[in-house]
Amino acid sequence: MSYVLGHNQYGKAEIHVVRVFRDDASAPHDLVDYNVSVSLTGDFADAHITGDQAKVLTTDACKNTVNSFAKEAGEAVREPESFGLALANHFVDDVPQVSGARIIIEAFPWQRAHGHPHAFVKNGDYVRTATVTKNAAGTTVVSGLKELTVLKTTDSEFHGFYQDRYTTLQPTNDRIMATAVTAQWAHEGVDVQWAESFAAVKDAITSSFAKAYSYALQATLWEMGTAVLDAASDVSEIRFSCPNKHHFVLDLSPFGVENNCEVHHADDRPYGLIEATIKRSEDVDATGAYDPGQAW
Ligand SMILES: O=c1[nH]c(=O)c2[nH]c(=O)[nH]c2[nH]1
């Protein structure tokens, strides 16, 4: 029997590194808090097929590289995208048998506490993400965020939907709309002001969620996506994955209590899951820039 080794990749996952910027003794400290995962591709068939590990850069060395680069990479460490670029460039340019690197970073935001120079409060509103991929096809950067929970108490309808014999949902002209936004957006190049771009995209997402009258979560994704493309010229497409966090109006009539969309049951599961990509044009094909898990 002869078999074929298909796609393979390896690296160290979830290296949790916190870097404090304290170079100037008189200046307030800053920090970044990253969870970094490294995946390498390249000439690693022997490691699987013959057991020869001569070309394997250990995952332990990957971890050490990330930790050391948290100092060595200087100012690039301040944004997850530029840190990911520094790491991807190192692995592909400096390790001969590595032909591709994908760096995935979760960045946990901290806010200065009461203007204090070295005390911080973890801001649990969202997690920022970055995926940097460098391979023979080039270098791509995808920025993102997840766990950004937003809710509006009105200006949301859902009606006119298809009816079949299993359809029992009542149409509504007034409901709560809530979701926890996961979004990833691909950049057209790698020469981007990452902090400014992220702030513009996040602001476009939350402001369009607030402003747009919603006819469905699907329509809200379109509004948020087009607002992002208007706000950030470096973004070629944005992909949303948004659970519909259902809030059901409770029937309080058995208790003689009127309920005018005031008291709700916040349902946990199941939830609608609405996902869409909004692209600058049909020509955009950023699929290779995203981490598909094992769907390589
Ligand atoms: O915004 C919505 N989109 C749907 O597709 C859907 N389906 C459903 O039951 N409720 C909703 N709400």
Structural summary, described in words:
The chain is an alpha+beta fold. It folds into 2 domains: 1-136, Roll (Urate Oxidase), CATH 3.10.270.10; 145-296, Urate Oxidase. The chain is built from 5 helices and 12 strands. The protein has helices at 45-49, 59-72, 80-94, 194-211, 217-231; strands spanning 15-21, 30-42, 98-107, 110-112, 120-122, 127-135, 138-152, 177-187, 235-244, 247-249, 264-266, 272-279. The protein has an 8-stranded antiparallel β-sheet. The longest helix is centred in the last third of the chain and has 18 residues, at 194-211. The protein is globular, with a radius of gyration of 23 Å. The two termini are 25 Å apart. The structure holds uric acid. Uric acid is lined by residues 158, 169, 216-218, 244, 272.
